[in-house]
Specification:
It is a single chain. The chain has 197 residues and is mainly α. 69% of the residues lie in helices and 0% in strands. Helix 5 runs antiparallel to helix 6. The protein is elongated and about 70 Å long. The mean pLDDT is 80.
Length: 197
Amino acid sequence: MAEEKQNLVSEETPVIVKKDPIIDRIRNYFHPKGIQVEMLRYRPNKGSYFLSLLSIVCFAVAFCVFYSSTNLPTGRESFNLFGSNVAGPWLGIDIVLNIVLMLFMFFATIEMKSYSLTLGYASVGLGAFQIVRIFMLPLSLLNVGSMKPAIFTTMLIMYVLSGTFAILAGFLSVYRGTALRKYLKTVKPIENEKVGK
């Protein structure tokens, strides 16, 4: 009887779990300590993986919008990109560059899932390039009139989002990967650790 009374009291008593403030949770996410670092050994870097996938999706949308609605300029003298007044070769280079960058971003996404520092830095650089590249060929085509302002604005938004997501994914991989590597120097290695180069 006393035991049943004890169970009733414990079931009715609410357990209050105190959560850390959001700022502390963000800080701990980028700079994990204690048990959080130990858990990184077993968990993939889902934050970088997800942000990098979002970057690829935005990049693909910009690519599709660009090449489904842009024409080659007809006036050779009006187009100018790095001193060249012929747009055709630049469009070819841009297509190849987009394919190579997208394949590299997929590779970086998989590697950053394992806390890769090298590809984390590469993702930051690629993200910065994504933001800057809208002001190269697309801006030249907009100035000539081969691209509509609405298309340019859509591409601008997609490239900036793609670059921002890539930069965040890279920083997350670098910060969490650095904390994990420092911790791994103090403990014995185990099987199935989630650490890349």
